[in-house]
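Hey,

The postdoc asked me to send both predictions to you directly instead of through the lab channel. I've kept everything plain text so nothing gets mangled by the mail client. Protein one:
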Amino acid sequence: ADELGQHIAGVLDRDRVAEGVQALFEMGLLGQGLDRDAAAETGVRHRGIVDDTGYPGNRARRDARPAAPHRMPMNLKPLYLPPDGRPRCAWCAAAPGDADYLRYHDEEWGRPVADEFRLFEKLCLEGFQSGLSWRTILNKREAFRAAFAGFDYHRVAAFGPADVARLLADSGIVRHRGKIEA
């Protein structure tokens, strides 16, 4: 239990999180679930137990339930273990074998962005993603960069009706007038 606490407690770094998750696999704790007492013994900060619906639910109801094998702390559920053996978030399983998707998870997802142009790019791509898979957007990312002037927000702010028409004709991006005009 102490070994688990050393790997997980207070971890902010992604690589250390991956090491901690790997330790859970090796110790046989991942997938078995941890109840409140087990979490306290390991030093893991408890954020609540979720049931198989994914909702924390009423605390009294939750505390009254016995620990079950399918329950584990929210921050450890669910995971995807691709062939490279590095545990990742379950949404990576939507594109097994897609190196770009895994690279996005490893290098970008959940990381702070300080550059204004990169932040503008992320905001725009999130808007275009609405109703679509993130994989679709990532596959079109270079076309979006070309179409939207490298996401230079000064240049994009100057776009007019001719640019909207040009973007609507660009098969490399998502051609949705509402999303383009937003």
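Protein two:
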Amino acid sequence: MIDAELLGILSCPACQADVVEKEGRIVCTNKKCGRSYPIRDGVPVMVVEEEA
């Protein structure tokens, strides 16, 4: 579980919307974006892959 204070600071790197923790992942609250990021060893991995 991610600390609530940290979760309040984080935003989606793709669209800058707020995020929530859901089912062990960090999830963007923007329905148009809807990206989901894994949490590995208690650390959110919020990387947007570069498009070629």
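Summary for protein two, as requested: The chain has one domain: 4-41.

Thanks,
C.
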